[in-house]
Specification:
Chain B: InterPro entries: AHP1-5/YPD1, HPT_dom_sf, Sig_transdc_His_kin_Hpt_dom. The complex is a heterodimer of chains A (676) and B (150). Chain A is mainly α and 676 residues long. Helices cover 51% and strands 5% of the residues of chain A. Chain A is globular. Chain B has 150 residues and is mainly alpha-helical. Classes of the chains: A mainly alpha (676), B mainly alpha (150).
C-alpha cells in the first residue's frame, strides 16, 4: 500500500492531480491501477484493505476526490465500502470488478456507485473518471440553486410564479443557475472544504428545519436560521437532501423510534445527524412534536449509515438527542411537558445515532466507529432494542458494556437501581464512551444495547445538559419537569449531549431526558444498550448500536421501546436517586412494545445518543404512551399497559416502561432522567 | 549476439506469444505503461503476478482436494485469480479460469479438476516463455525491449 501523506492541495488544473484512492486486495490489479492512474496524471493513493481505506478517508475527507474500489475483497464487501464512503464522506465511488453481470452492476448502482468498470481496466476509461467528481459538485450547486430559487424568485418579486409553470420554473432555474454559474464553477473546480456536520451544527439544522416545517424548509431559510458562519447554502442544501432521504428511510420504521434515537446521538456522520434529525422530526407521538423519524434512522442504519452516524462527525444524532432528550418524565408533569416538547426532533434515538435507530449499523461499522462517540452505538441500540427491552436499570450500568457491544442491557437494566447508572459509568468503557457518559441503559435487557449504550457515550454526557432543556435542540418545553431534579444533575454533567456540545464524542450519548424525578442516568449512552426493556427503555438504544445496522432496521414497533430504553438509560451516573429506579420500573412496564409503534421517541426527547434502536423506540413508544410523567420523552404512550416488550428494546419501550412507572410512582418524577 | 539480431529475436518472440494466444491486448497496455519513469514495469508486474498467484493456486489445489467440494469457495478463489490473469493479459490462462468457473457453477467437480490441471499447464508454460522473453529483453536494454514494435 502506498500512501502519500503529504498534504495535497486541491488542484487548480483539474482533472490533473485529482486525488484518487484506489482499493483492491489483488496486488497485481492494484499496481496496475496505480500505474494507469498515474499515467492519467492523477494523484494516487493505494491500499489493499478496505478498512485502511476507510481509515484514510476518515482521517481527512478532503484528501481525496474520488475512490475506486474493487467489489470482491476479503475484509469488507466492496458494496459496503461504497455505501459507507457515500454516506460518510460523500465522495464519488467507482466500482471495479472482473465480473460485469447485470445483477452486480445493478447492485453497484443501487448502493450509490458512480460507475462500474470491468477488469482489466483500460486507461481510456480511467481518463474520464474525473467527470464523476465534477458531476457531483455540479449537482450540489444545482441543488442549491434550485432550492434557493423559490426564495429568490419570490423575493425578487418575479413575475413568474415559481410554483407554476414548470417550463417557466425551468427557465428561471436555468437563469438562476447561469447567474450563479460562474460562481459555482469556480467552486466546483476548486476543492471545497468539506463541511463537517457536527452534532451541534446538525442540531441547529434540525431545529431550523423543524421550525420551518420540513416541507417548507428551504436551504436559504435554514441557513439564515442557523446563523452559522462559513456555512453556505450549498452545504445546507446537500445536507437537507440527505436529511430528507434519511427521513424517508426511517419513515418506514416506526418514525417515533427514530426520533428518539436520533435525538440521542450525535452521530458523527452527517447521516447520523440526519437520522437524528429525522427522528426528531418524526416523532409524531411526541407530544405533538418533532417527529422522530425513526424510520429514517432506521433506514440509515440499515445502510450502515449508522456507522456513519456514529462517526464523530456524524453524531448529529447526538446533537439531536440532546434535543430530543427523552424525557423520561416520570412525573405527571413530565407528561405534560412532553406535549410541549415538540421539538423532539432533536432527540432522537440515541440509537439512531448510529444510524440505526432502527437498524443498527453493522457491527463492523460500529466497531470502527466505536471510538467515535457513543454515537456509534446508537445504532446499536436501535437494533438492540429488538428484544423486549426490559431495562433493568438496576445495577445495570455496571455493565459498562455499554461500550462494548456486549450486554447492552445491563445498562438499562436496573430500573430499580437508580444508581445503576452510576455504577455503570465506570463499567462503561470510558474510552469508548465519550467522556463520562454514563450510559444508563435502562434496564432493558438490551444486551445489545448496553454495548450500545456505551457507544452513546456522548449521549449521556450531554445528558445533563440536555436535560435541563438544555437539550438544546429540543425544545422540550416541558423540560420543566425534568429539569427539576435532573437539571441540576445534568447541569453538572458534561455538556449536554450532543446538543450542547455537539461534540461528537462526548456527548453523543443520547440523553433521554427524564422528566423530573427521573434520575438522570448518565450512562454512557454510547453503549446504547438501549434498554429494550421497558424499564429502561433507553438502554436499548445503545444496544442497538451494536447490533449493526441491519438489525435495526427492524422493528418499527420498537419505537416506544426505544423511548423506554432511552429513559432507562438515563441513569445519572452519580448516585442516581431512587426515583430513577422507580422510573425504571415504570419504564419497564411501559416499554412494552406497542405494536403500533408509537414513537416514543418522538415523545421523548431522546437526546440520548443511545442508539436506542429504532425498534426500541417503537416499543418504547408504546410504553410511553400515556405517560406524561415520563416527561417529554415519551409521547404519551400507554405505558400503563404493562407493556411487554417483546423485542422492543427500543427506546420506546423503555420510555413506555418508564412512563408507566412514572405513573405508578409519583416520585418517579424526581429527577432523574434516565438516559439511555 | 548482435544487438539488432537480438532485437529481432525479441520481436519474434513477442509476436509468437500473441499469435499463439498466450498474450492478448492487455499485455500491450502494460507495455504502453512502461516508460522512463517505469522502465521495467512489464517485467515487474509479471513477476508480481507469478509470485502472488502461487498462493492462489495453492489454495485452489487444497480446496479441490476436499470432499465434498465447496464450489462457492472455489469460485471465489478463481475469481481472484482471474482478476490477476486478465490484468496481465494472460489469455490462455484466463480462458481456463473462465472454464473453471463454468464448471463450478454447474457443480461439476470432475470438470473443475480437469480444467485446473490444464490451467496449471498453461500457467507454467506462459511463465517459461515470459521468463525467456524478459531475459532477452534485459540483455538488449530496458528501453528498447520495452518499446512496442512500430
Amino acid at each position: 500500500m502506498t500512501i502519500d501523506r503529504s498534504f495535497v492541495e486541491p488542484n487548480d488544473q483539474f482533472p490533473l492531480g485529482m486525488r484518487v484512492l484506489a482499493v483492491d486486495d489483488d496486488p497485481i490489479c492494484l499496481k496496475l491501477l496505480e500505474t494507469l492512474l498515474r499515467k492519467c496524471q492523477y494523484h494516487v493513493t493505494t491500499t489493499s484493505q478496505a478498512i485502511m481505506a476507510l481509515k484514510l478517508l476518515r482521517e481527512n475527507k478532503n484528501n481525496f476526490d474520488l475512490v475506486i474500489s474493487d467489489v470482491h475483497m476479503p475484509d469488507m464487501d466492496g458494496f459496503k465500502l461504497l455505501e459507507l464512503v457515500g454516506l460518510e464522506m460523500d465522495l464519488p465511488v467507482i466500482m471495479l470488478s472482473a465480473y460485469g453481470d447485470t445483477k452486480l452492476v445493478m447492485k453497484g448502482i443501487s448502493h450509490g456507485a458512480c460507475d462500474y468498470l470491468l477488469k482489466p481496466v483500460r486507461i481510456e476509461e480511467l481518463k474520464n473518471i474525473w467527470q464523476h467528481v465534477v458531476r457531483r459538485k455540479k449537482t450540489d450547486s444545482k441543488e442549491q440553486n434550485n432550492s434557493d430559487k423559490p426564495c429568490h424568485e419570490t423575493e425578487g418579486g418575479q413575475a413568474v410564479t415559481v410554483t407554476g409553470d414548470s417550463d417557466q420554473n425551468g427557465k428561471l432555474n436555468r437563469k438562476k443557475r447561469d447567474q450563479k454559474e460562474d460562481e459555482n464553477e469556480d467552486q466546483s473546480t476548486q476543492k471545497r472544504t468539506r463541511v463537517v456536520w457536527t452534532v451541534d451544527l446538525h442540531r441547529k439544522f434540525v431545529a431550523a428545519v423543524n421550525q420551518l416545517g420540513i416541507d417548507k424548509a428551504v436551504p436559504k431559510r435554514i441557513l439564515d436560521m442557523m446563523n452559522v458562519e462559513k456555512l453556505t447554502r450549498e452545504n445546507v442544501a446537500s445536507h437537507l437532501q440527505k436529511y430528507r432521504l434519511y427521513l424517508k428511510r426511517i419513515s418506514v420504521v416506526a418514525s417515533h423510534q427514530a426520533n428518539m434515537i436520533a435525538a440521542s446521538g450525535g452521530a458523527d456522520s452527517p447521516y447520523l445527524q440526519m437520522g437524528f434529525l429525522n427522528g426528531l422530526g418524526n416523532v409524531p407521538s411526541m407530544v405533538g412534536s418533532a417527529q422522530f423519524q425513526n424510520t429514517d434512522v432506521r433506514s440509515l442504519s440499515s445502510s450502515g449509515m449508522l456507522d456513519r452516524l456514529n462517526t464523530p462527525a456524524g453524531l448529529g444524532m447526538r446533537g439531536l438527542s440532546s434535543s430530543g432528550m427523552v424525557q423520561l418524565g416520570h412525573a405527571d408533569n413530565l407528561i405534560n411537558p412532553i406535549n410541549n416538547q415538540n421539538k423532539f426532533h432533536e432527540v432522537i434515538l440515541p440509537g439512531n445515532q448510529n444510524g440505526n435507530i432502527q437498524g443498527m449499523p453493522t457491527p463492523f461499522e460500529f466497531d470502527q466507529l466505536q471510538h467515535k462517540n457513543g454515537v456509534d452505538h446508537i445504532g446499536d441500540l436501535s437494533s438492540a432494542n429488538n428484544d423486549s427491552m426490559v431495562f433493568p436499570i438496576s445495577s445495570g450500568l455496571s455493565d459498562g458494556n455499554m461500550n462494548g457491544n456486549s450486554s447492552r442491557n445491563s445498562f438499562l437494566g436496573a430500573p430499580h437501581n437508580p444508581v445503576m447508572l452510576q455504577g455503570q459509568p465506570q463499567g462503561i468503557k470510558r474510552d469508548e464512551l465519550c467522556g463520562n457518559q454514563s450510559f444508563v441503559t435502562v434496564a432493558s435487557s438490551n444486551r445489545e444495547y448496553s454495548s450500545r449504550l456505551a457507544d452513546f457515550r456522548g449521549c449521556i454526557d450531554s445528558w445533563p445538559a440536555v436535560q435541563a432543556s438544555e437539550i438544546q435542540s429540543n425544545s422540550f418545553t416541558s423540560n420543566d419537569c425534568f429539569k427539576q431534579d435532573t437539571r441540576s444533575y445534568l447541569m453538572d454533567r458534561k455538556s449536554s449531549i450532543a446538543m450542547d456540545t455537539g461534540n461528537k464524542s462526548n456527548n453523543n450519548s443520547s440523553i433521554a431526558v427524564v422528566p423530573a424525578g427521573f434520575p438522570v442516568l448518565r450512562t454512557d449512552l454510547q453503549s446504547q444498550a438501549a434498554p429494550r426493556q421497558q424499564s429502561n427503555a433507553e438502554q436499548n438504544m445503545n444496544d442497538t448500536q451494536k447490533q449493526g445496522w441491519d438489525e435495526n432496521k427492524q422493528n418499527p414497533s420498537h419505537g416506544p421501546n426505544l423511548m423506554c430504553s432511552f429513559l432507562n438509560s438515563m441513569i445519572p451516573p452519580h448516585g442516581v436517586p431512587d426515583p430513577f429506579s422507580q422510573r425504571l420500573d415504570l419504564e419497564n412496564t411501559i416499554c412494552h412494545r406497542n405494536a403500533n409503534g408509537n414513537n416514543m421517541i418522538g415523545q421523548r426527547n431522546l437526546v440520548d445518543s443511545s442508539t436506542v434502536q429504532h425498534n426500541e423506540v417503537e416499543q418504547s413508544a408504546i410504553g410511553t404512551t400515556a405517560k406524561p410523567k415520563q416527561g417529554n420523552l415519551i409521547n404519551q404512550r400507554k405505558p400503563q399497559d404493562g407493556y411487554s416488550f417483546d423485542d422492543v428494546g427500543s427506546l420506546e419501550d423503555l420510555v413506555t416502561a418508564m412512563m408507566k412507572q412514572e405513573e405508578d410512582k409519583s416520585n418517579m418524577r424526581e429527577g432523574g432522567w434516565v438516559y439511555i | 549476439m548482435e544487438r539488432s539480431q537480438m532485437y529481432r529475436q525479441l520481436a519474434n518472440m513477442r509476436k509468437a506469444l500473441f499469435d499463439q494466444g498466450f498474450l492478448d491486448e492487455q499485455f500491450v497496455q502494460l507495455e504502453e505503461l512502461q516508460d522512463d519513469a517505469n522502465p521495467n514495469f512489464v517485467e515487474e508486474i509479471v513477476t508480481l503476478f507469478y509470485r502472488d498467484s502461487t498462493r492462489l493456486i495453492h489454495n485452489i489445489e487444497q480446496a479441490l482436494e476436499k470432499n465434498p467440494l465447496d464450489f462457492t469457495k472455489l469460485d471465489s478463489y478463481m475469481h481472484q485469480f482471474k482478476g490477476s490473469t486478465t490484468s496481465i493479459g494472460a489469455k490462455k490462462v484466463t480462458n481456463e479460469c473462465t472454464q473453471f468457473r463454468e464448471y463450478c457453477k454447474a457443480g461439476n467437480g470432475e470438470g473443475c479438476k480437469r480444467t485446473f490441471e490444464q490451467l496449471k499447464k498453461e500457467y507454467a508454460l506462459l511463465k517459461k516463455k515470459l521468463e525467456a522473453y524478459f531475459q532477452l529483453a534485459r540483455q538488449i536494454g530496458p528501453v528498447e525491449s520495452a518499446c512496442r514494435p512500430k
